[in-house]
Known about the structure:
By secondary structure, the chain is an alpha+beta fold. The protein has one domain: Alpha-Beta Complex (Phosphoenolpyruvate Carboxykinase, domain 3), CATH 3.90.228. The chain has six helices and twelve strands. The protein starts with a helix and ends with a helix. It has helices at residues 2-18, 47-56, 95-103, 152-162, 170-183, 194-212; strands at residues 23-32, 35-40, 60-63, 66-69, 76-77, 84-86, 105-108, 112-115, 128-129, 131-138, 146-149, 185-190. The radius of gyration is 16 Å and the shape is globular. Helix content is 38%, strand content 27%.
Amino acid sequence: MNVIRDIHDVFFDWFLEVNPHHLCLHGAAVRIGDGLVCFPSTHKAGKSTLCVAFAAAGQTVYCDDVLPIEPRRDYGMAMGIAPILRMPLPAHVGPSLRDFVAARKGRANRGWCYVRLGQDEIAPFGEHAPMRGLVFLDRKSRGQAKLEPVSKEEMLKQLILQNFADQVPPVATLDRLLSITQAAQCCRLRFDRITDAVGLLIDTFACCHSSSA
């Protein structure tokens, strides 16, 4: 497990070296409808578990940790890397998701477990999709899941902090991240139960995509 995870880190470095015009964000992303909902990284926010829950709900995972952004249209790009979960699963994970993880258990050790997702559950390496939503995760809330608006300025600041591609000039990086932020719906998801959070996001973004198509 330690070797595999180290290889992934080297792979990200290699990818950016041979693709110097890509941006790259720490964060998770899931395709809902025709676009991506991205969760900029925050420590122990539950983004990997949320991604697996989306896969169990019929959506397509793009990444649970690193999201490259291609330079032509600033679309998010899938890396084709299976999500990895911290073990044991948290108490708030329901029985259906536990069964889903158990049925797709990959390489694991005492602290971590890769989840083997199927063909329609994870996007293949190189697949692209536009960024439709940018969502902060707050799982410390209690009660029903809810979405709250976030200012474009706050979201842009977070994207700047989470971008670790250093070969794109700073002005170009700022322009591109600003364009992504302006085009996306920016919000904060407060939730307790993962199933409620997944259902709310699918209803919100699938509805938005179908109405704008």
